[in-house]
Structure formats: C-alpha cells, structure tokens
C-alpha cells in the first residue's frame, strides 16, 4: 500500500534531475507567496477601515539593544508602514524595572489609537516577562500569548491567536490541504507554537497527536501522520523515512546550523546549498531533513516557509484587534474569517 502511494508520487515528479542532485517530488508551499496574498487581502481591509476613519495601530516595545530583537521589531514596523498601519516603537533601556515597564504597558492599554501591543522577547533578567505579558490588555494582545487569548482559543471563541500557528493554518487553507479528518502530528508543545497549533488543528477537525521530548517511538507516531508539523528546534531531526508518502510537512523549525558534518548530511543532495554553507559557515535550517521533500506530497521550505507568515499574521491580528475592539460597528469581512 505504502509502495503504491510512493510510486504515485514518483510518477508526478516534475523536477528534472541534474547531475548530483536528487529530484524533489513534493509541492513546495511557499510562505513568501502566501504572505503576499495575505498582504493583498489586508491592504483592501485596511483601506475599508480607513474609509470609516479607523487606522489600526501597533505599538512595539523593544527593551535594550539585543541585535536580533532590534531586527525583528524593525521588520514588524516596516511591515506596518508597507500596509498603511500606524506603528510606534517604544525603546526603554535594558535597566528598566518590571514596575516601570508595567506602567508603560498600562499607558498603551489606555491609548485608543493603539489596537495591538507587542512586547518583544526576551526581556532583561530583572524584568518578570510573565507579569508584563499578563498586563497587556487581552483585546490588544496581538501576539496571542495572554491567558485570556489562550482560553478563548481553547473554548473556540473568536480572539487573537498566536501568530506562527495561525500562519501555519493559513498555509494549509490557502494551499488547499484538507485538514478535516486528517491525522495530524505536532512535534513540540510550547505555549507559542506547539500547543496553539494542536488546538487550531483540532478545531479544524483533524485528529491530533502532540509529541514532545518524552514521546516514545517518535518516528512511528510521525509515520501515521497526513499532516506533520515540526516545531522542536532540532536541526534536521525528522528523517525522510519518518514521513508517510504524500503527507504534508510543515517545518516551523528555524535553526542556525553551523555543524559542518550535519550540513554535509542534510544537504548531500543539494550541492548548491552545501556550497553556500561552506562559503558562509552557517545556514538556517528547519527541523526536517530536506530530503523529506522526496517523500512528502507538500512541504514548506526553510527559509521561506513558515517564517514570513509570522509577521503577516501579526499584521492580520492588528487589523483583527481593531475590528474586535470596536465590536459589531466594523464586523470582520467574510474573506478574513478562517
Ligand atoms: P521550545 O524550545 O519552546 O519547544 C520545543 C518543543 O520541542 C518542546 O515541547 C520540546 O519538548 C520538544 N522537543 C524538543 N526536543 C525534542 C525531541 N528530541 N523529540 C520530541 N520533541 C522534542 O521551542 P519553540 O516552540 O519556541 O520553537 C520551536 C522551533 O520553532 C524553534 O526552531 C524556533 O526557532 C521555531 N520558531 C519559528 C518561528 C517562525 O516564525 N518560523 C516562530 C517561533 C518558533 P518538551 O516540552 O518535552 O521539552
């Protein structure tokens, strides 16, 4: 049975083999293309709100000088200006106390022109991240981390959902991948990816298995999945022979790979990528071995898969928050409803 399915996939292989390169069989689910579709929808939505005198606004709180955090926040602010959202960056020094930061969040909660508040993590050691995140008004919780947002997700009520798993659902929906009735395996149970991911898939009527570091016989569990979501932070751990032929593989993992021996293993079938790794000494790789693309029916690349959707969903959540905060006065357009 498995062999017949595998033959089918091989027969629809469309990539021409070049010397030293293996053919891909999987359809590549491009996150950048899906992000562009979402942005096009959001631009219409934002124009509609502007015509009603509403410009959704995002406040980004960036504490200290962490270069990675600065880069993330800059790209979020740039996305706001590309889409015509109001944005504001608040940049307290890394000596700030929990009480001072709580006061800043309180001010943002009270400002009506701010629809979304994001507090970029990590926060300095002396600051209680939990107290800060819990202080964000749940109506403005565009990261979807507040316990009220999580509770709404569990209860299946409308609300703001964590951006990365929401982005994965957009990839599946916009790529026409059937979720209802599918066996879905989520590897990882973190609050920001694995748990909300599993809940979203369950609400979309998949039969969901959640795996973590104590799961026994992980490869066997993954082999039963029609949809695999890998979110462990373990470079290239999911092997091609863990994947059921034809399955959809969503690779959330974003790992900085510097281990040359592992890079040689992961990119043995991709000489160009290996060459680039040797030049730069690192690359960004997912949790799934790239050769899984020879077995899967559809797969997200890393980079360029789930990554671009995270910011897109932050923008989408800001617009959603602007509508939800104003209740029935500006109902969500039919196109935006999942
Ligand atoms: P966490 O470290 O918070 O969680 C990792 C999860 O993976 C845990 O639940 C852990 O299990 C599980 N895990 C770890 N090792 C294994 C193993 N050997 N077998 C099975 N399960 C294992 O990570 P995050 O959820 O924050 O992120 C996961 C990955 O997704 C990272 O690579 C991160 O960079 C990426 N990411 C990408 C985003 C994007 O925009 N593309 C956004 C957010 C994250 P246990 O609970 O038992 O410890």
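^ structure tokens above, recovered residues below v
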């Amino acid at each position: 049975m498995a062999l017949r399915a595998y033959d089918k996939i091989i027969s629809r292989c469309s990539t021409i083999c070049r010397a030293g390169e293996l053919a891909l069989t999987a359809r590549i689910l491009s996150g950048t293309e899906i992000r562009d579709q979402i942005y096009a929808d959001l631009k219409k939505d934002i124009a509609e709100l502007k015509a009603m005198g509403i410009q959704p606004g995002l406040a980004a709180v960036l504490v200290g000088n962490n270069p990675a955090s600065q880069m993330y926040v800059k790209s979020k602010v740039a996305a706001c200006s590309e889409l015509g959202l109001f944005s504001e960056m608040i940049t307290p020094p890394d000596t700030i106390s929990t009480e001072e930061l709580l006061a800043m969040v309180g001010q943002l909660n009270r400002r009506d022109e701010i629809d979304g508040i994001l507090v970029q993590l990590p926060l300095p050691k002396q600051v209680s991240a939990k107290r800060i995140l819990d202080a964000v008004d749940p109506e403005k919780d565009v990261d979807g981390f507040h316990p009220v947002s999580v509770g709404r997700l569990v209860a299946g009520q409308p609300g703001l959902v964590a951006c990365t798993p929401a982005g994965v659902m957009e990839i599946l929906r916009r790529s026409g991948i059937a979720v209802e009735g599918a066996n879905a395996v989520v590897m990882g149970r973190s609050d920001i990816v694995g748990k909300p991911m599993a809940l979203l898939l369950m609400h979309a009527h998949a039969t969901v298995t959640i795996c973590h570091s104590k799961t026994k016989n992980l490869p066997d569990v993954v082999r039963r999945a029609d949809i695999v979501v890998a979110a462990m932070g373990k470079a290239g751990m999911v092997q091609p022979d863990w994947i059921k032929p034809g399955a959809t593989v969503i690779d959330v993992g974003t790992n900085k790979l510097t281990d040359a021996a592992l890079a040689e293993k992961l990119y043995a079938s991709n000489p160009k990528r290996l060459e680039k790794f040797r030049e730069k000494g690192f690359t960004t790789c997912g949790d799934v071995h790239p050769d899984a693309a020879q077995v899967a029916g559809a797969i997200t690349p890393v980079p360029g898969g789930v990554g671009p959707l995270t910011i897109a969903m932050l923008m989408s959540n800001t617009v959603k928050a602007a509508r939800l905060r104003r209740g029935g006065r500006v109902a969500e357009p039919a196109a935006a409803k999942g």
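The two ends are 34 Å apart (CA to CA).
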